[in-house]
Structures are given as structure tokens and as C-alpha cells.
# Entry
Amino acid sequence: MTHHLDGPVAIIGGGIGGLTAALSLQHFGVPVRVFEQARALREIGAGVTITPNAMSALDFLGIGPVLAEQAGETPRYFVRSADDGRELERGPDPDSFMPEFGASYRNLHRADLHAALTDAVTKNDPDAIALDHRFDYLEQDGDQVVAHFSNRATFAAPALIGADGGASAVRNAVFGGQDASYTGHVALRALVPITRVPPAIIADPYALYVGAGRSLIHYPLRHQTTMNLLGNAQASQWQAEGWSIPATVREFLGLFDDFPEPVRELIAAIPETDLFKWGLRDREPLPVWTRGRVTMLGDAAHPMTPYLGQGACMAIEDGMVLGRAFAASQDLAEAFSRYEAARRDRANGVQLAARFQGTQHHGSTASGPNSGKTAVTLGLFSYNPVSEPI
Ligand SMILES: Cc1cc2nc3c(=O)[nH]c(=O)nc-3n(C[C@H](O)[C@H](O)[C@H](O)COP(=O)(O)OP(=O)(O)OC[C@H]3O[C@@H](n4cnc5c(N)ncnc54)[C@H](O)[C@@H]3O)c2cc1C
# Structure
């Protein structure tokens, strides 16, 4: 930005989106301060698929090699019928991603991705991340935006980015509260050490099973030493919000008791300390992301159901483009306007596509499973946040 900014940009939320935005802004010479409510930086124990569209940003920002080293090879994925395990669809050859899209497809442990981002951001600036700062509210005028935190600290900045996830307090403060509706589906997630995984699953490690009202995906992490497992099923009601409510193997098995035997064996092998559930909630896309000196990013702007596996990828794309928008602009208004114009239709569109995909999976019947579309068949990988016009 040719116009000098008066102090670091404030980023609320040190998740995947906030940290990617921090790294991208730093890359383009914009100082940042990330405020995270947690007392320690950590991520939940779960896998995350980072597809070439987002991986190209992580490569550009310099953390691709460390992620590749931690992840190992990505196997080819198969979509299978939950009735009898037959193949409904197969994913592309994993070796085709680099030649076709210029980046890889990686299944990562969330903690590895989070740690790589944190290390890179703090290497650029050891004071970039402030923990134990829970954002409460903000005030803004023509000169600055002031964030107030529940520890009574305040921070005045020229700009503020709301990257505080699906239940965003920044979004509530700036755009008013937005009710989340329960989708009628519950999700269960687990990590299983490879020594406990049935041989039939090891031989077919990356599969999505679709059946009546349910779907289940598993894929290996960290050089095939751990199997990540995510199941979605209908459940009539749900109260709590949050990704870490303990669940039991019995409960998981009860929901998937007619799935093929290797899948049931895999569920039975889950260590219960590593099994969690949450109710899937949906919010409407934000029609406008920016107000004055504040803009939104990641789940805070476009929280999405997990049916396309693109929530983190969209947050990474947002973060990458935000840095580029600052670099290309004369002033803050231009930067936010370029950012929102480049990102809103893409991210909100993927949010709506993920919602639709959920109805396809769960619309499957006993007589005919419906795999619907995937991020591949929707063509989502051909977007490159490093080079898209902004
Ligand atoms: C089990 C699971 C599997 C998933 N799998 C995939 C996948 O395979 N691929 C994919 O692309 N996406 C996946 N997603 C979606 C993806 O995880 C999210 O879209 C992504 O984490 C969004 O990143 P974010 O940074 O916007 O928000 P978050 O990850 O929610 O981070 C928000 C951060 O803000 C902090 N915060 C919240 N409120 C405040 C406050 N008031 N003050 C300060 N800090 C605050 C939080 O502590 C958190 O650190 C999955 C989600 C789940 C739950």
C-alpha cells in the first residue's frame, strides 16, 4: 500500500484463516497483531483436506515444504456406496494435481497446519500474536478502530479483520446477530492409530461412503500413521455449539450399524478419548463483508457445512487475497473493496454449494445412494488465490 498505515492491522482470531491473513499481510510488508481468545495456541485433533486452490497460497507463503514433509503421500480417493461398498466414483490420480493446478492436494493434521502458520508468523514478528484476548466489542471513526477485549485491554488500529470463526463476535458487533439454524445433522470425528485400523481400510485408505441419511469419510494423516474419520448422520435435535463434545463408540456404531463391515470395525477401534461430536449449524452468507475500517474473513464471513471440505480452504484463499489487495491499493478503502470484490461471490457460492451437497448426500435412499458433486467435479481447484485478478 503506498499510503502509510498508522500501526499494525488488528486480526481477531488466530485460527487457520486469521493466521493465513497475518502471514500474507506480513509478506506484503503490512504489520499485524493477531488477538486470540485462547490462553495457548492449539488446534483440535482432526484432519483437514487442503486442496490445490488453497495449497497454492500456502506454497507461495513458504510453508508448503514443511506441510509436505509432515503429511506424506495423498492416496487416491473413492466414493463408495454405504450399502455394499461398491465404487460410485473415483477421484483423480493424486499425481495429476501438480501438473494440472500447480499445487498438491494434502490431507493434514490440523495441529500441523496451525503450527506451521504460527511459526511463520512469529518468525516474521515475535510480537505478532497476543493470546488470552477475547474480543468483546469495537468502536470506529474516520481515523481508527478500537477493539475492546474481555481482559479490559484495548487496541487501536487503522483496520480490523474479523477472523473469529462461525460464531463471530466481530460479525455480531458490526453486522448484528445472525441466528444459526441446526441442519438436522450431527457430525462425529475421531483419530485412530494405524495399528488399530482394520487391514481392509488400510488397503483402501481414502474413502467417502454415502448412504441413506448418512455419510462417512476416512483418510490417513502423517505418513499413514493415523486414520482420520468423520461421520455425518441425521439427529432430531441439538443444543450445544462447539466441535469437542465427547461421544461414545456405541453411539457412533449405533448410527452406522448397517455400513460395510470394515467401516464398523474401524468405528469399533476408535479410542474413546479421541472421539467427539457436534451439531452442524448453518448461517446465511453475509451479503456485505466490510463496514468502514472492518472486514470479515473465513468462517466469520461464510461459515459452511463440511460437505465439500472447503471451509479452511476458503479461509486460506481469503487470507492470501487480503494481503494482495493491500499491496495493490493506495488506501484502506481501496484494499477492502478489492478484497471483498475478489472474494465474496467465490466464498459465498462455495458456502451455498456445500449446503446443497449436504442435501444430496442425505437425500440418498436405501435403493440409490447419491454422491452428488465434489469439490473436483465443481471445478473448485482451478481458482488460484495467488494469481486471480483482484
Ligand atoms: C471436524 C472438522 C473437519 C473439517 N474438515 C475440513 C476440511 O477437510 N477441509 C476444509 O477446507 N475445511 C474443513 N473444515 C472447516 C474448517 O475447519 C473451517 O472452515 C476453518 O477452521 C475456518 O477457519 P477460521 O480461521 O475462519 O475459523 P476458526 O478455525 O473457527 O478459528 C477462529 C479462531 O478465532 C478464535 N476466536 C473466536 N472468538 C473469538 C473472540 N471473541 N476473540 C478472540 N478470538 C476468538 C477461536 O478461538 C479460533 O482460534 C472442517 C471443520 C471441522 C469442524
Summary: Residues 12-18, 35-38, 46, 48-49, 134-135, 163-165, 169, 189, 243, 298-300, 306, 309-313, 315 surround flavin-adenine dinucleotide (CB under 6 Å). The mean pLDDT is 92.
